[in-house]
Amino acid sequence: MDMNKTTNDPVRFDELLPAFDVFAKDRELPVMIGVDRAGQNVFADLVDLSHMLIIGGIGSGKSNLMHLLIRSLCHAKTEHEVQLVLMNGKMNELAMDTKDTPQLMYPVITEEQQSHRALIAIQDEMERRRVKWIETGVHTLADYNKQQKNKGQETLPYIVLMMDEMTYMYDAWLYFASLVDTTIPEAENFGVIFIMSALDSSRLRSLNRLKTKVFFGSNYAYRYGEHQRGTHVHASGNLAKRGEGLLELSSKEIIPFQAALVELPE
């Protein structure tokens, strides 16, 4: 996690790019999140954050954060380094924002049947990688790629699956939740990261076991209050504006932040 001094004012994606470029150097999956309440940059490596659950009401800033993660990954990494699988239950801005994006493994997925096929394809790829790991004696994608580079051979990309507004594709949401205790715990070893956004996780409590969580809106207020009662926080005060949220890295470490704004194509 990198937190460098910048500004207290709301910031846009382009404004943070110079600092982000410095941070992204030698990171596996660098992403921009925004700034904290002290005006410091909040950047991270998805390899460290691992699988992520983003929770918040309509209009709270979930989709903007998704766009921000996509933009920063595509800015920092080529299609040979990362491939994105994007699922969107509302068929809104994701398709427009990612038009002609070479990092996309498939066009943006908006149908239940397509989402199931994509999830199964990712599971199949993980099994192929499992065989390669056994054959080469490695444990992670970073180790495998390092070994391949030393041999002058082809490397493998990270795969980041991002599921936005998945409450609109409930069957796919249920299928994803069924993977939490089986496929997902070992997925990061094979270079696969899952990110899901939802209005809430009360109906699928298994999703709460995803390592990193981001809370927006009333979900933020509730979670922030829990932390204030007994654990260390990086900043204080109530967050109310759109895009202000809480990055929960562990049960004892949280960062209130303002997501950088992403301008979408018209």
Short description:
By secondary structure, the chain is of the alpha/beta class. The protein has 9 helices and 9 strands.
What does this structure look like?
The two termini are 33 Å apart. The chain is globular. The protein is of the alpha/beta class. The chain has a 9-stranded mixed sheet. About 4% of the residues have low confidence. It is built from 9 helices and 9 strands.
Write the SSE topology.
Elements: H1 13-24, E1 30-36, E2 41-45, H2 46-49, E3 52-55, H3 62-76, E4 82-88, H4 93-97, H5 112-136, H6 141-151, E5 158-164, H7 170-178, H8 184-187, E6 192-198, E7 212-216, H9 217-230, E8 244-250, E9 253-259
Parallel strand pairs: 3-6, 3-7, 4-5, 5-6
Antiparallel strand pairs: 1-2, 1-9, 7-8, 8-9
